[in-house]
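RECORD TYPE: inverse folding
INPUT: structure tokens
STRUCTURE:
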């Protein structure tokens, strides 16, 4: 961030304020880690912060410090709207376009207070008063660490804030495997561990607390997997009926898309998940190397994200969506 912007934010936060902190719809570890880290930081600096999530967070993130304070817009629209309208500052973290907040966009787009965006996705919209946007970072949590440091408040980062930051860095880096994991990333992680962050416990809380239903869903997704060997692509799908038969809850499909990349020779993978309530097929894309799934999602499935991780959606049937995907894959030069 520019020195002038940092100074302006320091001045803005120099007196106690009511502050709303917003993650994107369908929040993941980086979204909730960054918003809750910011919540604890602002609380420590005598503000009145509230995290408002557009919809429910996955159950495997409910142990995060402060998760019990998060308001859910879908459940408490009137109360959340009141908080937003009374806020004197709004942070939007881990997204860069207001439509990523779903129904909340209607309220957020009318507010006249300063908005502060911290995000690492491509092509940010121009809605924020202050924008800290950099695609070189693998997670928004790493950027929040920097943001706190920019404000001269690095000493405020304690075990609680560090736990939230560690969670977002861990999940968005694919457990430190993705290309944007740098030496600096590991140095930050080392600092957080020195603060008491339980690096041997957090992965267990995130990845090893599956329900039997989730394992059955994973098994079905692996059974449904198809391979397009000549184009180094794997994909799978889950219908609404399949999800319902295993008592699906939010978060059960998290990470399944990555299994395709574990197959030798595969560099592009996708999962298609039917959501009858929203009347869409939700899609996640992953890749290895130079294949740009962000551009693929933007061009063909009304989505976007990062070069190696992106999402999209289709309003067509599952069959038509997969046929479209197969046709596109057969034309790929990979």
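DESIGNED SEQUENCE:
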């Amino acid at each position: 961030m520019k020195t002038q912007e940092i100074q302006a934010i320091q001045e803005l936060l120099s007196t106690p304020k009511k502050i709303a902190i917003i993650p994107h719809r369908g929040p993941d570890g980086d979204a909730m880690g960054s918003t809750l880290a910011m919540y604890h930081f602002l609380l420590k600096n005598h503000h009145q912060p509230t995290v408002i999530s557009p919809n429910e967070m996955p159950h495997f993130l409910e142990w995060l410090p402060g998760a019990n304070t998060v308001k859910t817009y879908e459940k408490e629209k009137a109360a959340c709207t009141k908080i937003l309208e009374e806020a004197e500052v709004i942070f939007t973290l881990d997204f860069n376009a207001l439509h990523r907040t779903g129904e909340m966009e209607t309220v957020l787009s009318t507010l006249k207070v300063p908005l502060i965006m911290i995000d690492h996705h491509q092509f940010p919209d121009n809605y924020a008063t202050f924008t800290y946007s950099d695609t070189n970072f693998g997670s928004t949590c790493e950027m929040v660490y920097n943001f706190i440091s920019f404000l001269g408040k690095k000493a405020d980062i304690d075990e609680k804030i560090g736990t939230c930051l560690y969670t977002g860095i861990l999940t968005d880096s694919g457990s430190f495997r993705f290309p944007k994991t740098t030496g600096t990333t590991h140095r930050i992680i080392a600092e957080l561990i020195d603060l008491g962050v339980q690096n041997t416990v957090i992965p267990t809380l995130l990845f090893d607390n599956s329900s039997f239903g989730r394992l059955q869903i994973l098994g079905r997704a692996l059974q449904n997997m198809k391979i397009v060997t000549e184009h180094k692509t794997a994909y799978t799908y889950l219908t609404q009926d399949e999800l319902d038969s295993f008592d699906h809850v939010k978060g059960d499909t998290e990470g399944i898309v990555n299994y395709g990349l574990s197959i030798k020779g595969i560099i592009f993978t996708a999962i298609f998940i039917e959501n009858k309530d929203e009347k869409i097929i939700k899609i996640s894309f992953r890749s290895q190397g130079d294949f740009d799934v962000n551009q693929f999602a933007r061009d063909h499935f009304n989505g976007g994200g990062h070069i190696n991780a992106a999402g999209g959606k289709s309003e067509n049937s599952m069959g038509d969506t997969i046929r479209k995907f197969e046709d596109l894959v057969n034309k790929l030069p990979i």
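NOTES: DSSP finds twelve helices and twelve strands in the chain.
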